[in-house]
Design goal:
Layout: H1 2-26, E1 34-35, H2 37-46, H3 51-54, E2 59-60, H4 62-70, E3 79-82, H5 86-91, E4 98-99, H6 105-109, E5 117-120, H7 126-135, E6 143-145, H8 158-161, E7 174-175, E8 193-194, H9 199-213, E9 217-218, H10 220-225, E10 231-234, H11 238-244, E11 246-247, E12 271-275, H12 280-291, E13 295-299
Parallel strand pairs: 2-6, 3-4, 3-5, 5-6, 9-13, 10-12, 12-13
Antiparallel strand pairs: 1-8, 7-11
Helix pairs in contact: 2-9, 7-12
Length: 331
Amino acid sequence: MKSLLKFAAIFAFLPFIMLTSCSDDNDDPQPEAQDRFDVLKKYLIDNNMDISTVIDGWITTADVVYDAMTDADDANDYYIIDIRSAEDFTANRIEWAVNSTLGDILTTAEGAGGKPIIVVCYTGQTAGYGVIALRLSGYPTAKVMKWGMCSWNATTAGAWQNNIGDVAIGNANWSDAPGEITANVAQTAPKVEYITEDGAEILAGQVANMLTNGFKGITSVDVLANPDNHFINNFWAADDVTHYGNIKTAYRIKPLTLANGEYAYLDGTASIVTYCWTGQTSSMMTAYLSVLGYDAYSLKFGANSMIHTNLESHKWSDAQIMGYDLTTGGK
């Protein structure tokens, strides 16, 4: 009887021993994510993907695309990815284009077969996000079609026709020529938190995050209403600020690179709004800054939405519409 009680006691205690053993195994310290901004920065510089390199030669025009696709030489054809909605793509599209979403653009690009890639959207702005993703993912020659589908045919030109304006002219938060730029000072970099220290893995993760979050734009009306709510970067040459003026409180950080350190003038704790002439260059910059971990936004339609009447160049007009044929149906 005593033996039976002894064995019963042992069996009763056994689960406790096993649970304690398992608990000890699960209590091993797990690695924690740490700020890898400097790892990402170094990887981009070392692999020839600094900002100035990635945005070099990033744009082409509808006439260049059309001429290449209609000449007798198939060897210079483009692989055209249209990231508009499936409904709008099916209603009116470029004959040779394939439809995708911004989120799926890297998968769609696998079908390029070595052809240079052109990304098309409504206005040439969201396409900048796609091109940054492609150029940081092994497609360094990908380009935006300037003005988007608005430049292909009048039928698809509404997005630009309906968004030009003069909201900054006479606005209290616009500093007239010669402008009044805020002096650059060193700021805090954003945090890019990962467990891995592998630069390629971090970059792939950041590109995926950027594509998942999608295009981040803000209107000129919203920015001019409360410029103090944002860190604003005027991405113009100094002479252009002198000629046209600028949004009050804006900085002018151009050139902007990692290797030479100008990125350090951007505030990694603020929402960063970049503006240019058309919103197309600023969309490229915003996409890249998003990959770096900044909370970045592109001012939609750029100066064309703020001082269109005053612009002497970089200006949307009917002259940008080529009048090329459209086709219908999916592809």
